[in-house]
Amino acid sequence: MSETGGVREVKSAARTVELLELLAARGDRPARLQELADALNVPRSSMYALLQTLISRGWVRTDVTGSLYGIGIHALLTGTSYLDSDPRVRVVRPYLDEASQALGETIHMARLDGRDVAYLATRESHEYLRTISRVGRRLPAHAGALGKALLAERPDADLPEDPYEPLTPNTHTTRDALRSDLAEVRTRGYSVDREEGVLGIVGFGFALRYDTPAQDAISCSVPVARLSAGHEERIVAVMREIRAKIEATVPGGGGSVHWRR
C-alpha cells in the first residue's frame, strides 16, 4: 500500500478517484463495465459494486440499458464549487472581461496541474472566426501558451522526460526544443504558441506571479487569419497591462487560505 505524506493511502478511496478520473478523461465516450475493470485492474464484481454506489450518489451515470457508464452531474457541481471557492479565480475574472472587451479575442485563465494545465475561466471572442475552449479542459503544458508561460517559471531540470505528445506538427516533442523556447519566454516575458496546441490558432501566455513559482497564467488566443503584426503588438501590450493589474490586486496574506493548488 502506498503512502502520501507519511499516511497510508486508503485503497478504496484511491480506486474511487481513479475511476472518476478515468471516466472524466473519456469525455463523451461512455465505458462498459469490463473496460473499466480491465483499465483499473480490479475484479468485475468489485467494479460493478463501486459503479452502483457512485450512481446512487450522482457521481456516475448510466444509460437506459445499464451497460454504459459516464461521469455524473455531481462531478460538475463539485468542480463549480472549486471555482467559486478559489480567491484567485474570483479576483481574475473581471480582468478577463476587461481584456476580452479591449481585444475582442478569446481570453483564458489556467492552472498548472502536473504535466498539464487546467482551464479555470474563459471569455470567448464574439468574432465569427474564434477559438473555442471550455472551463475544465486540460492541455499538456508543453503544447500551449499557458503551459509554456508556467514552465518558464521553473528550472529546466524540472521538465519531464521526452518525447512529448505532438498535438500538431508544430508541437515541441523534445526537451531540447522546449528548453530553447522557454529561454526565449524568460527573455521576452511571455510565451507564444504558434499553432502548437491547435492548428490555425496562435496564443500569448502570461504567468501570474502572485505565487512563487507561478501556478496560474492568463492567455489570449487568436486565429492566424486575424493576426496581423499590429494586432499582435496590441495583444501583448493589453495582456501585459492586465497581468500587472491582477498581480497588484491579488492579496498576499490577509488571512485568506493559501491552497497548495
Shape: globular
Radius of gyration: 20 Å
- Fraction in helix: 40-55%
Order of strands side by side in the largest beta sheet? Answer: 8-7-6-11-10-9
Explain how this protein is built.
The structure is a single chain. With 261 residues, the protein is an alpha+beta fold. The chain is built from 8 helices and 11 strands. It has helices at 11-25, 33-40, 44-56, 73-85, 87-103, 145-151, 175-188, 229-249, and strands at residues 3-4, 7-8, 31-32, 60-62, 68-71, 106-113, 116-123, 138-140, 191-194, 201-208, 216-223. The strands form 3 sheets. The chain has a 6-stranded antiparallel beta sheet, sandwiched between helices. A 3-stranded antiparallel beta sheet has the order 3-5-4. Helix 2 (33-40) crosses helix 3 (44-56) and helix 5 (87-103) packs antiparallel against helix 8. 30% of the residues are buried. The mean pLDDT is 89.
Give a quick rundown of the structure.
The protein has 261 residues and is of the alpha+beta class. It is built from eight helices and eleven strands.
